[in-house]
Amino acid sequence: MMLGAWGNRDHDDGVRIIHAALEGGINFIDTADVYSGGESEEIVGKALRGRRDSVVLATKFVAPMGEDTNQRGASRRWIMHEVENSLRRLDTDYIDLYQAHRPDPSVDIDDTLSALSDLVHQGKVRVLGSSTYPAELIVEAQWMAERRGRERFRCEQPPYSIFARAVETAVLPTCERYGMGVIPWSPLAGGWLTGKYRRGSDLPSGGRAARVPDRFDYERPENQRKLDLVEELLKVAADAGLSLTHLSMAWVLEHPAVTSAIIGPRTMDQLTDLLAGADAHLEDDVLDRIDELVPPGTTVNPADAGWSPPGHSRKARRRVRR
């Protein structure tokens, strides 16, 4: 997500970062059509020329790709159109893992699974997945696939970090029950769990802070709580002989439901640091200390949940009929 206009605008540097990741042992790359308006997919496509078959490549659809209301969503019309765009930008004939980036309440899940199943049968997609789906929609999608004979979602990509633990309540157990892979996004909570944001530091601006300000605004009490927690977690990390970044990545990987955690480096230095902590392991006493700071199932700031159900909207809450 950080390669392109949303982060590192230097395409050649982005290619170098991806090559260094592959040489460092990474064999799975996840992107999305919406990242920098398709630019991220283009950078990935350049980086994988001559290396495509050695990489498991994932991308996503649903998010708006233009002002037109038809240029988004999980309808058959848009899926069939947008998969061709992603294939072109990625410079590939097939996508290993094609994921619905968010739920689309305006579309019947069977319509989505029907279109995606056709892509699997056509050989353009290998495996289907969802991202940031609540447990009830994961179950509905599994049930629908079985009932209608569709290809099923085999992977879920949820938000999961020390600061965003809500998925522990139902999403992760549901994925385990259905044998689904789990590849969490934002294991470093958008940079919070690197120690980048601390009391006395400048207010975050640009990048993620501009796109999702509620996650970074220091004036919000939830983010004040994050600032307090960072100081406590830095102590935990120091006692464990780890940096906060390595502690936070290892913590996500310790959950038995998690298959792999997605990293999002913007620079070569960030990638180098993340690779250096790949083998970090946390003892039970460290995990217990973290649980005391952020109890299981807790998300410190609801804005980190990644998706708000339609039932939470003001209109739904007030039962306004117009």
Overall description:
- Helix content is 41%, strand content 9%.
- It is globular, with a radius of gyration of 20 Å.
- The protein has a 6-stranded parallel β-sheet with strand order 1-2-3-4-5-6, with helices on one face.
- The longest helix is centred in the last third of the chain and has 20 residues, at 221-240.
- Helix 1 packs across helix 2, helix 2 (39-47) crosses helix 3 and helix 8 (221-240) runs antiparallel to helix 11 (284-293).
- The protein is built from 12 helices and 6 strands.
- The protein has helices spanning 11-23, 39-47, 76-90, 109-122, 135-148, 171-177, 207-211, 221-240, 244-253, 268-276, 284-293, 314-318, and strands at 28-30, 56-61, 95-100, 125-131, 153-157, 181-182.
- With 322 residues, the protein is an alpha/beta fold.
Summary tags:
322 residues; 9% strand; six-stranded parallel sheet; 6 strands; 41% helix; alpha/beta
In short:
With 322 residues, the chain is α/β, with parallel strands linked by helices.
Structural topology:
Elements: H1 11-23, E1 28-30, H2 39-47, E2 56-61, H3 76-90, E3 95-100, H4 109-122, E4 125-131, H5 135-148, E5 153-157, H6 171-177, E6 181-182, H7 207-211, H8 221-240, H9 244-253, H10 268-276, H11 284-293, H12 314-318
Parallel strand pairs: 1-2, 2-3, 3-4, 4-5, 5-6
